Structures are given as structure tokens and as C-alpha cells.
Amino acid sequence: MGISKGSVWSVRFSSRTQCGFKPICLSLYIFAAWVHGDPRKVVYPTDSYGQFCGQKDTINENKTSLFYFNILKCASPIVLINLQCPTTQLCVSKCPDRFATYIDMQGSYRHNKSYWEYYRQFCKPGFNKPWKVLIRDEDCPSMIIPSRPFLKRCFPDFSTKNGILTVANQTTFKDGRGKTRNVTDLREAANGINNVLDARSVGMKIFEDYASSWHWILIGLFIAMVVSLLFLVLLRFTAGVLFWIFILGHQHSLMRNCREILFLLLISLIFMLAVIILCIVEVFIILMLIFLRNRIRIAIALLQEGSRAIGYIMSTLFYPIITFVLIAICISYWAVTAVFLSTSGEPVYKVMANQTLCKYANLTCDPETFNTTNVTKLCVGAQCTFAFYGGEGFYHKYIFIFQLSNAFVFLWLVNFAIALGQCTLAGAFASYYWAFRKPADIPTCPLFSSFGRAIRYHTGSLAFGSLILAIVQLIRIMLEYLDHKLKGTQNSFTRFLLCCLKCCFWCLEKFIKFINRNAYIMIAIYGKNFCTSAKEAFFLLMRNVVRVAVLDKVTDFLLFLGKLLVAGGVGVLAFFFFTHRIPVFTQETPTLNYYWVPLLTVIIGSYLIAHGFFSVYAMCVDTLFLCFCEDLERNDGSTAKPYYMSASLHRILGKKELSPKKAMG
User: In the structure, what pLDDT confidence band is assigned to residue 82 with cuts at 50, 70 and 90?
Assistant: First the structure.
């Protein structure tokens, strides 16, 4: 079995890793997105002329809000924010603060020109004919409604008074057409806006809670970190005790249930069947424990050895921070590129006509030449207004494909960051296992050395494994998208087929993650390419399939117990603290709007911290297990081929060491 550069098996390297596959992160769509994209289209609202509101060094620099001439034509807030409302839109310096109509303004113009001076700021620039009769909302809005800016758009100032929807404490308003209307005509928009505003109010209260309790939250997370660290260190001594206590407790519970059911046996024959089933389960579990007792002892010994390895290489516990930073960079890259892609369209103008029979309605137009066409003659009052950002070119037609490619690269990079962490940790822990005398032979800075080997020699292999996983994940995303689109269909066969595909690809993703994880361990040990490492890891695991199953279940149980202990214990402590139930800290406890805000933050944060620590531990145990299996197959305990396993594993296996070897710590 050859050993390549980048391995930790021996200091005698023979050849460099050959993978031949290097990730290409820059592609044509990224270049196109960054060239054509314009994030200002997201930051600034756009008026009917395609101009940004509030953009510096433009005529709209001081006009930061978007005003809608006739907001009644806008169906919902979603239309206002994401799509175009079929009414003229204008950038204004401030939103209206009163009810007014164009007709009322004309009636008072001769006596009070201040009415017009206020009203004209919501008319098109250059319009100075207040005596002109408006047939439709063209140059000026027929009415204005008290509004307030939200998301840089002027929304009606809705409020509720005694359970009644009002606008500026009024329930009716004039629509500028001689009619008095009720504010409930805006109910569709009002419901959505009020929900958003209510959410905004709740958000402000949550922000206040965070502002007053952030230091206590940090203390709680620090306690979670200390408890997680102590749990991992104590596993060296308590792994076996915790496991057998749980098993004995489970057996005692089953026996007690059997006794209770026997007491009820005379009541119903159903309980008799339950007794039989429970007894069968009990006998099966006892036989399994007897049959697998040595393998369980090996699993517990490996868990204890993992705790010992982490104790010697404490820096590995903080490596998840690097993975977190890399994933954060990937998310930022994806988000920025997605914004550039979504804003890479050109402004599209369409004919807006009030006449339903106008054949030119909704057709694209050119605002510079629109007035010279015959459209204004055939459709009286038609306007060429900004509709949306898009285009008819090749690039704009395939924006969706580019967004899909962006999502694929995002998945690829995230999986690569995770793979890099797994390979780095595996290399560090493998260097611990293959040290003949522990800890004397453990190399200096094993984590840093392993990270350097992974970057220098194994990027191609890690990228290839990440690519396979990213392809499967992208297919799963597409299947979820299809499932969402076909939810309303009545074709039962289609739904069944889609459900089967989703299930199959979910299983495939889990399998590939399992293979990749163990392949990265073999890459870190031997320095071979991905395919060879995956094949060797798979067959090695198959030759030790029972040990794999036992170790996996024992590890899962102990880590689940640890996460429950950390998150639950710190969560209970935080609950008593934030609800003023600890007399010693009553004066220090902050006054909160929602005590569950910091409580949930502490619980979720504690779980994530525990997950970060325990993921390192799980990687350590998996690495030591593969090294242990390799040690058994490659060595026989002779002087020429001594075992590298710990003394406790020697005793469990009942193998004698034929070569002199110092006791391992």
C-alpha cells in the first residue's frame, strides 16, 4: 500500500498526491453579473422615469421616498415593493401628511395659493397649471393621503382606534372623483402593511431586549463552552459509565412495564400481546449486548481515546471557528452575486393606458420617442412609464440559469469548506494515533501542519468530493422546487414519482456525506486521491461493519446526551435568571419585553457551541476508528510491525505486544 505526500502515516514520503481536478471558482456568469449588475436597484426605489430616489449627485438626491399617485390601484404591499403598481410613481422629499384632493385645491387656489404650493410637490416636475382639469392621474394625483415612509415608499398611515381601521384618525376620505370612500377600501394593502409594521414594532422590542441583555447572553454562552469542554474531557473517565447506566436504566424500565402489564393481563388480551412483544424486545436487547459486548467495549475505549487525543491537541476544538468564517464568506459571496444578478437588467418601459381596449397597453416603449408616436392619439392619456428591470437579450433571458449556477457554486464552496475542516482535523488526530509514544512522538503543531498539507496537496480531492455532493444537493433543491410548483396538481402518479425521487436523493446525499467523510480521513492518512481513498475507506468499513454500527450508535448516544446536557442545563439556568427566580441576581437581571428572546438565544447558542465542540470530537472518534482498523490489518504486534493502538485497546482485544513499547498516556 503506497504512501504519498501529504500523509501522516510516515515521514518517508514517496510521491505527490495525484488528483488532477482543481476547482474553477470564476466563471462567465460571475463576470457578467458583476459587469451588468447594479445593487442600487435594490437600495433605491425607482420612479416612473427609471430614476433612483435618494441617489447622490442626481436631481433626486433629496427626494428619498417613492410616492404613488393612486395607491388604490396597488393590490397589496407585495406589489408595491417587488412589482410595479399601475399608477404614476414619483420621487418626493417627504410623504404627504394630510388629506387633500386636486378638486379642493382648485377651489381654494384663487384665495389661498399655499394649498397649491403644498400640493404641487406631489405633481410631476414642471407642472404649473393648477387650473387644468384632470381627467385621470396624469400630471397630478387626484388625491393625497397621510402617509409615512416604509422601505422608502410612502404607505398610508394606518392605525386602529377601538378596533376600527383609520388613516390619520379618520375612517373616510375623498377620492378626488367626487366620492367619499371608506378606508376599508385599502384593507388588502392595510392588512399586509399593518402586519409588517406590527412586526417592525416587535422587532424594535426584541432589539431593546438584546441591547439590555447581550452581556448576560455572552456569559451564558461562555458557560456553555466551559460545560462542553468539561464534558469532552470527562468522557475519558465517564464514557463507559454513562453508556451502561443508560442501558441498565432502559432494561429496568422495560421490566417495570412488563410487571405493570402482567397485572393488567386479566383485563384484556391486548395487554398479553404487548407483554409478549416487550419480552421479545427485552430478550433481543440482552442477546445483542452479550454478543456485542467486546465491540461495545472497543467503542467506549475509542471514545475515551478520543477525549485523550483532544486533551493533547486542544487547538482542534477551536477549528470550527475557521470553518464558520469560511462558510460566512461563501454566504456573502453568494448573496452579493445574487443581488448583482437580480439587478443586472436594463430599465424596461411599457405603455400604461387607462383604456381597457387600448391595443398598445403593456407593450414596451421608448420614453424618448413615445410622444412622437401615434399611441397617444389612439389611446388618449397613455404614458410610457418605467415597468421593471429586465431585457430581451441573450443574457437577460438566462438570468434564472445564472442564478441556479450561482446556487450551485455556493453549495460547492460550502461543502469544500466543510471538507477542508474534516480533512484538517483528520490529519491532526491521525498524527496522534500514529505516534508510537504518546505524547512524546506527536508532531509539533499537528493542526497547523495538517491544514498546510490539506491546502497544498489535497485541494483537488476535496473539491472533487464536494462537487459530487453539491450536484446531488442541487438536484434535491430542484426536486423541492418542482414539488412546490406541482402541489396543486391532481395527478397522483406525478406526486408519487416526485416523492420517490426526493426520498432516493435524500438517501443518496446521506450516503455520499458518509463516504466523503471517511474518504477525507483516508486522504489525510495516506495522501492518495479521492477515488482511491473513498474505495479503500468503503471496503475497510465493510470489513468492520459491525464495529462501525456499534461505534456509530454509542457515539451518537453520548453526543446527544452531551448536547442535551449543555443546552438543557444552560437553558434552565437562563430561564431562572431572566424570570427573576434567582434571589441573588434579582437586582442584576435586566427588565425585558420578552424574556424568551435572550432565553432562546442562549439555548440555541449553547446547542450550536456544543455541536461545534462535539463535531470535532465525532471527527476524532471516526479518525481513530479508521486508524484502529488499519492498525489491526497492517500490523501484528511484532517487533517489525508493532501496534500503535493504546494499551486499553490492547487489553480489550486480548492481543500481546511482542515489541517493547512505552505505556501510552
Answer: very low
Secondary structure, 3-state, 264-320:
CCCCCHHHHHHHHHHHHHHHHHHHHHHHCHHHHHHHHHHHHHHHHHHHHCHHHHHHH
Q: Are residues 87 and 172 in the same domain?
A: yes
- pTM attached to this predicted model: 0.70
Q: Are 19 and 529 in contact (CB under 8 A)?
A: yes
Residue 61 domain boundaries: 42-178
On whether both 610 and 643 belong to a single domain, the answer is: yes
In a shared domain, residues 315 and 355: no
Residues 60 and 169 in one domain: yes
Residue 151 inside a domain? The answer is: yes
96 found inside a domain: yes
Tens of pLDDT along 391-435?
Answer: 666 666 677 787 888 889 999 999 999 999 999 999 999 999 888
Helices 492-526, 530-543: inter-axial angle, 10-degree rounding: 100
pLDDT at res. 78 = 39
Q: Give the DSSP H or E segment for 499.
A: helix 492-526
Residue 36 reports pLDDT greater than 70 = no
* Segment 447-463 mean pLDDT: 92
Q: Identify whether residues 324 and 365 lie together within a single domain.
A: no
C-alpha distances in Å from residue 499, one per residue of 476, 479, 505, 658:
11, 9, 10, 57
Residue 192 lies in a domain: no
Instruction: Examine residue 260 and state whether it is found in any structural domain, yes or no.
Output: no
Whether residues 94 and 132 fall in one domain: yes
What is the rounded CA–CA span in Å between residue 398 and residue 378? 35
CA distance 231 to 240: 13
Residues 6+ positions from 161 with CB-CB distance below 8 Å: 169
CA angle 232, 233, 238 (to 5 degrees): 85
For 85-110, the pLDDT digits (tens) are: 667 788 998 898 888 888 888 877 77
Q: Is 484 exposed, middle or buried (0-12, 13-18, 19+ CB in 10 A)?
A: exposed
Taking the C-alpha atoms of residue 253 and residue 261, their distance in angstroms, rounded to an integer, is 12
Which residues make Cβ contacts (< 8 Å) with residue 563, sequence separation at least 6? 607, 610, 611, 614
Other CB atoms within a 10 A radius of the CB of residue 261 amount to 20
Shared domain for 471 and 583, answered yes or no, is yes
Residue range 18-32: average pLDDT? 47
Contacts of 347 (CB under 8 A, 6+ apart): 46, 50, 386, 389
Which of 290-294, 518-522, 560-564 shows the lowest mean pLDDT across its residues? 290-294
309-342 pLDDT, tens digit per residue, is 888 888 888 888 898 889 889 888 888 888 777 7
- Higher-pLDDT residue of 258, 374: 374
Note the pLDDT of residue 80: 39
No. of helices (H) and no. of strands (E), the chain:
19, 12
* Cis-peptide into 439, omega within 30 deg: yes
Give me the number of domains the chain comprises.
3
628: confidence class by pLDDT, cuts 50, 70, 90: confident
Beta strands in 14-96 (DSSP E): 65-68, 89-92
Q: How many CB atoms lie within 10 A of CB 373?
A: 15
How far is it between the farthest Cα atoms of the chain? 114
Region 530-550: what's the mean pLDDT? 88
Specify whether 529 is located in the same domain as 480. Answer: yes
Cell of 620: 476524532
Grid cell for residue 40: 442600487
- 170: DSSP letter: B
